[in-house]
Amino acid sequence: MKVRELAVPGALEFTPDVHADHRGRFLELLRAEWWHEAIGRALPVAQVNCSVNHRGVVRGVHFTGLPGQAKFVTCLAGALVDVIVDTRAGSPSFGVHDTVLLDENTHKIVFLPEGVGHGIASLADGTTAFYLCSDTYDPANEFGVHPLDEDLGIDWRGLLAGSEPILSTRDSTAPAVAAARRAGLFPAYTKCLRLYQEGPS
């Protein structure tokens, strides 16, 4: 397993060792000790999510308030680009984003700490995203910003080879970054750091 830190501090890319032979492939997606070695803390798995997507679908940019969900995201079928965005108010890298290609061949995994947002762009019909979440879904603690907001600077159409992104009603009516900032939706960076060090209170 190889680990790489992304442009958003605290977000990580895991590349597992894939063992292939005439039968197919085998790999270990996650081990508890990998989390602890890379992140410095143990994380429970409280919920497992799976989304199956048509080509051109964009989901996000979504994030949670605190304590919120840390997430491990991988792709079981097809291919997607995971776009990781620093949505922590007061972070030196607030608004910075990075991208990781997740597909059924490399089986890479993205780790998103609490407070960090992300969105996915599906590159093929049937693309299946698989999430391990450290806490259960709480609709009152779920937030998002419009993925096409120019302040984010994400070239979704470029990621989709020129296709128009397919958005849900929720995402197409999500607030712009400036409006979300004025409304105080973004979790505070200092509180995120404290959570990472001390765990949920």
UniProtKB/TrEMBL annotation:
Keywords: Isomerase. The keyword Chloroplast does not apply. It comes from the Bacteria. Signal peptide: none annotated. Its EC number is 5.1.3.13. InterPro entries: RmlC-like, RmlC-like_jellyroll, RmlC_Cupin_sf. One of its GO terms (molecular function) is dTDP-4-dehydrorhamnose 3,5-epimerase activity. PANTHER family: DTDP-6-DEOXY-D-GLUCOSE-3,5 EPIMERASE (PTHR21047), THYMIDINE DIPHOSPHO-4-KETO-RHAMNOSE 3,5-EPIMERASE (PTHR21047:SF2). Belongs to the dTDP-4-dehydrorhamnose 3,5-epimerase family. This is dTDP-4-dehydrorhamnose 3,5-epimerase.
